[in-house]
């Protein structure tokens, strides 16, 4: 498969089958993804993996704890909690990605950009292996309870949580806006 075809065919996967995702495979794919991104050799990020049933159940609790901790939110959002709990608990594996906060804004942006490139490469490499994923960053995830539970340090930034697993059917692609429609020439139209 050509790189262009791989990029065109990769999809966000939200429904996974029950096949386990070996931690060794995830590590191998992350290593390859990192090798494809130039950086100074000093990794300023880390990954947290949850792949066993116990780890996934614990993480599901962490993801929903902010909502279930608030009585009003729990009452108002109670009917929505079951589907989210089911969704999160059925995901075969998770990777939480954290990046170092840098004092210099340009360096901070460069670190964040490098991590995002690594994750994009990781998604493409995983797709070649029949692994799909969803990259989640929703505001309800990003809270002090969750960050405390996963061990986010003061000098770190949450980049996202990757839900990954094998899938039986890829969704159809959506139409995309052609680049020409977003094109502007400086000083022109």
TrEMBL record:
Domain (Nitroreductase): residue spans on this chain: 7-166
SUPFAM superfamilies linked to this entry: FMN-dependent nitroreductase-like
Organism domain of life: Bacteria
Name used for this protein in its record: Nitroreductase family protein
Organism: Paenibacillus enshidis
């Amino acid at each position: 498969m050509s790189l262009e075809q791989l990029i065109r065919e990769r999809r966000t996967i939200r429904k996974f089958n029950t096949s386990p995702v070996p931690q060794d495979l995830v590590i191998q794919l992350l290593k390859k993804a990192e090798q494809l991104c130039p950086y100074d050799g000093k990794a300023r990020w880390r990954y947290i993996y949850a792949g066993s049933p116990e780890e996934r159940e614990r993480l599901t609790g962490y993801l929903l704890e902010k909502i279930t901790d608030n009585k009003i939110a729990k009452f108002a959002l109670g009917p929505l909690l079951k589907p989210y709990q089911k969704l999160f608990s059925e995901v075969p594996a998770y990777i939480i990605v954290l990046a170092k906060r840098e004092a210099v804004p340009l360096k901070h942006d460069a670190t964040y950009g490098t991590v995002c490139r690594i994750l994009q490469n990781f998604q493409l490499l995983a797709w070649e292996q029949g692994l799909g994923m969803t990259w989640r960053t929703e505001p309800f995830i990003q809270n002090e309870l969750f960050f405390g539970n996963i061990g986010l340090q003061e000098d770190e930034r949450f980049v996202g949580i990757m839900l990954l697993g094998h899938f039986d059917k890829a969704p159809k692609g959506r139409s995309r806006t052609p680049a020409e429609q977003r094109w502007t020439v400086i000083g022109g139209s």
